[in-house]
Design goal:
Largest sheet of chain B: none
Distance between the termini of chain B: 21 Å
Order of helices and strands of chain B: HHHHHHHHHHHH
Number of helices of chain A: 17
Helix content of chain A: 25-40%
Strand content of chain B: under 5%
Strand order of the largest sheet of chain A: 8-9-10-1-11-19-12
Strand content of chain A: 15-25%
Largest sheet of chain A: 7 strands, mixed
Oligomer: heterodimer
Number of strands of chain B: 0
Structural class of chain B: mainly alpha
Structural class of chain A: alpha+beta
Largest interface: A-B, 58 and 52 residues
Number of helices of chain B: 12
Radius of gyration of chain B: 24 Å
Distance between the termini of chain A: 55 Å
Helix content of chain B: over 70%
Number of strands of chain A: 21
Chain lengths: 553, 316
């Protein structure tokens, strides 16, 4: 029923393939990860991470921003990965807005719920597109319909599964009528599915919308100057920005694909690249030590986990999953793969996703144990399960260094508790097939992923994993208790009450381990040391991140 | 005679392109994975959306029909549309071809000037010069271009800041500046090979009887080198230089990726990964054409260098 869309982690595929000679660092583990399991009391699980960097004060003519590959489209309907999201969230705005701490705020519109099945959006006065035309309810209805209609081949159609109708109900009002209460839709409308496009411009461009040939028409503080295949996306300040409180300092931002970790690193060191949210940079410690670069860590929203795809065999047994989880050396993964830029997990959710009901989430999270290594306990569980000597098969790719490193950690863990491991290695390009095709998963008990939801809510990712029929529920996992909690949360209006339900579901999932979390990556922001003001949290993926970016005085 | 030679080569080019396009199309078709993965971003799309995408890109048509769609378009000057960028392949190629052309040309000039120059000098001057050139070329020949790229970036971009570390330039001077390190990285190992072959060819010619005779007749050294040694050594030197330059076209992909240049090679790799068939086809054909043209130029050069060689007949 609740088939939520999912997000395959091409991010995992993006991890450095090149020979990282530059990375020959000392392997120092930096950052908050070293905190381990000591946190007690009311310390926020993301303490020590920064949401934003101090606002810039000086004008800057141009900044080059690196993404791991070139931007392929600027159409929010087909945006799912770091490069596209980085470019679109810079220039386009959604109905609601995800603040750097993950909280939902009014965006182009405010929202009210006259009844649990009605969402009424009122456009803010004076909201205009780059070309000066006002944003009308017709634009909103068109933009949402376009996302919802399967004939357009968009990625987010299923987000609207509970929507009965979307109608203009006033000169600045749009009403969404639902078939049943759905408080997850608000989060989606603060993300790619909620981006508002100009109806006339989009219709005029047709299939070309969002391509280098067609361009885009949005409302944000930066407007598209050029989108040339290969040369990257160039955005310049929108002089007619409707929100006069925002005055961008950087006149031009060029978003450029830099697939190679060595060129990214040397680019940052020489100033050819001035900023990036590069994920999983293996040269993190080298850049941290450079005086030319400032590295910030903000709350992340992605989870690094082992996908359990086995419907039978040892991993289908919860005791074996628990044993494997207890035997896993997560600190090793955090220091070798993430160079310290990740937290030890307690739940499947990254604590950076606590965008609402934060104190409820924090308290529940604090009560949950850190998933640290305990070999003795793990061996006991394997004995109880009676599976010693049995084999599990893991999918991996020796071309993806981080994936193979983590698979190696699982191999070590399994062997330490008396399980055998068979590896099935595929090429980097074909790793995606484990997510795509049941045939590729045949005989595979698990594989590594880095996965995130569309907005700051632990349920955004969990629901894709555990709900019956959900898009990432590869092993037909079904725990009626977790399903019921999530269903109930989806229809619960109060933020704290909803958070309490989701927290319970997460606590159950942390015991039942539908997937086994490995690490909770923080969001790493690289900035030239003469720049400041970019958003440091993962919400850059969904909301403007350069409004305060500028030079230091 | 010359015209028939050219026509024959053009016909060969057309045949090569046709066969190459079929082989490339076929191998990409057989390779695992589907462009749908790139199109859907790996998200589980409802069957309706998938069907729309399949129809739009003829993904369900049988192999030969798909190939025919492409060939028919190509014959009409339409190389198709990139699946990931939704733009004409010819536009995409045009925006990148000059980067690769500039890079290969720059590297070729380096190879021709330094490689051949070094070979001549060490061929004619046995002793210290020769030994040190031998050691140097042995070293550089062993360095693959991606390692050279990293070392060059580290040294000349990060430490000394003489050259930019990555990206394309804007304007001629800046282009040259941006392409210098990549061109050196690309040229380095081939340069060593050319230098060594040149050296051997020069040695061989210098030891031959007619040269010895010329020496005994007291012909001045300059004339001796130019007319009796170089002229005869030119054919093997041209051959090795031609082969090396043609191979640069393929190796350029590695260097382009290392320096984040918007060239055809790095784009070809990227397109092959996302199974963007039309782009892979388009770029491959450009590369095959370039390869054939370079070889043609070499053949014509043979005829110019050695009147005994008729155009179209390989020398020695």
């Amino acid at each position: 029923m609740t088939v939520k869309h999912h997000r395959l982690r091409r991010a995992a595929l993006a991890l450095p393939l090149g020979i990282a000679l530059l990375a020959a660092g000392c392997g120092r583990s930096a950052g908050p990860a070293s905190a381990g399991g000591t946190a007690a009391g009311n310390v926020s699980p993301t303490a020590g991470l920064v949401l934003t960097t101090p606002a810039g004060t000086k004008q800057v003519p141009s900044v080059t921003w690196a993404v791991y590959r070139d931007v392929e489209t600027l159409d929010p309907m087909s945006a799912f990965d770091y490069p596209e999201n980085t470019a679109i969230s810079l220039m386009c705005e959604s109905l609601l807005l995800q603040a750097p701490d993950g909280a939902l705020r009014p965006g182009l519109a405010t929202v009210a719920n006259p009844s649990p099945t009605q969402m009424v959006f009122t456009l803010k006065p004076g909201v205009t597109f780059w070309n000066g035309q006002p944003v009308t309810p017709a634009d909103v209805v068109y933009s949402l319909d376009r996302q919802m209609n399967p004939a357009n081949g968009g990625f987010y159609g299923q987000v609207f599964s509970d929507v009965r109708s979307i109608q203009a109900t006033g000169t600045s009002q749009v009403t969404i009528t639902l078939t049943k209460p759905d408080y997850w839709l608000e989060g989606e409308l603060a993300s790619m599915p909620g981006i508002i496009l100009s109806k006339s411009y989009t219709q005029q461009q047709g299939k070309n919308y969002g391509t280098p040939a067609g361009g885009i028409m949005c409302t944000g503080p930066y407007e598209l100057k050029s989108f040339a295949a290969g040369a990257g996306v160039t955005a310049v300040v929108n002089p007619h920005y409707w929100n006069t409180a925002v005055k961008p300092l950087v006149q031009q931002i060029v978003i450029k694909g830099v697939p190679d970790i060595t060129s990214f690193t040397s680019g940052m060191l020489t100033g050819a690249i001035q900023g990036s949210y590069f994920f999983g940079a293996s040269t993190l410690d080298q850049l941290e030590h450079s005086s030319a670069v400032h590295v910030y860590q903000g709350p992340g929203q992605s989870t690094d986990a082992l996908v359990v795809s086995a419907a039978s065999g040892p991993l289908a047994n919860v005791k074996v999953r628990q044993a494997l989880s207890l035997a896993l050396n997560r600190q090793g993964i955090i220091s070798s793969v993430y160079k310290g830029a990740a937290l030890m997990p307690r739940w499947l959710a990254n604590p950076g996703t606590f965008g609402y009901g934060t104190s409820v989430f924090n308290a529940a999270y604090d009560r949950s144990p850190v998933m640290s290594q305990n070999l003795a306990q793990a061996k006991k569980l394997v004995q109880q399960a009676g599976v010693a000597g049995q084999t599990i098969t893991l999918g991996t790719s020796s071309q993806l260094s981080s994936i193979s490193a983590e698979t190696g950690a699982y191999q070590a863990a399994a062997q330490a508790i008396g399980l055998k491991v068979a590896l099935k290695s595929v090429s980097a390009d074909n790793y995606i097939n484990f997510f795509e095709s049941a045939q590729a998963r045949k005989g595979i008990d698990g594989f590594i992923t880095v996965n995130y939801g569309d907005y700051a809510d632990p349920a955004a990712l969990l629901s894709t994993i555990v709900m019956p029929g959900a898009s990432q529920n590869y092993d037909n996992y079904n725990n009626p208790q977790i399903t019921a909690l999530l269903e109930q949360a989806r229809g619960t209006a109060g933020a704290d009450a909803r958070a309490a339900l989701v927290a319970k579901a997460e606590q159950l999932a942390a015991q039942q381990l539908p997937w086994i979390p490995d690490a909770q990556p923080t969001n790493v922001l690289f900035l030239s040391s003469n720049l400041t003001g970019a958003v440091a949290s993962f919400s850059y993926m969904f909301a403007p991140w350069a409004d305060q970016l500028g030079g230091k005085s | 005679m010359r015209w028939r030679f050219l026509l024959r080569r053009l016909a060969m080019l057309a045949g090569t392109l046709l066969v190459a396009s079929f082989v490339i199309f076929g191998s990409l078709y057989v390779a695992p994975g589907s462009p749908l993965a790139a199109l859907s971003g790996g998200r589980a799309l409802p069957p309706g959306s998938l069907h729309v995408l399949e129809l739009r890109y003829h993904l369900n048509a049988p192999f030969l029909a798909q190939y025919w769609y492409w060939l028919d378009g190509a014959l009409h000057g339409n190389l198709g549309i990139s699946i990931t960028l939704r733009e004409n392949v010819s536009t995409l190629i045009a925006s990148r071809v000059w980067t690769t052309a500039g890079l290969v040309l720059y590297a070729s000039v380096i190879i021709a000037l330094i490689g051949i120059g070094l070979g001549i000098v060490s061929g004619l001057r046995p002793g210290k010069v020769d030994t040190s050139s031998l050691v140097a070329t042995a070293l550089t020949a062993a360095v693959p271009s991606f390692v050279a790229a990293i070392v060059l970036i580290l040294l000349f971009a990060v430490r000394l800041r003489w050259f930019p570390a990555l990206g394309n330039g804007s304007g001629l001077l800046s282009d040259v500046q941006h392409l210098t390190l990549p061109a050196i990285a690309l040229a380095l190992s081939s340069l060593a090979i050319v230098a060594r072959v040149t050296r051997t060819a020069i040695r061989e010619e210098a030891d031959r009887e007619h040269v010895q005779t010329a020496v005994s007749r007291g012909i001045p050294a300059r004339q001796l080198v130019r007319r009796h040694i170089l002229r005869n050594a030119a054919i093997p030197i041209t051959t090795i230089t031609g082969i090396t330059v043609a191979s640069l076209i393929a190796v350029a992909a590695v260097v382009e990726t290392a320096f984040s240049l918007n060239g055809l090679g790095s784009y070809l790799v990227q397109a092959a990964q996302t199974k963007d068939l039309a782009v892979v086809q388009g770029i491959s054909l450009v590369l095959v054409t370039a390869f054939v043209v370079v070889n043609l130029v070499v053949d014509v050069l043979y005829a110019l260098l050695d009147p005994r060689v008729a155009a179209g007949v390989r020398a020695r």
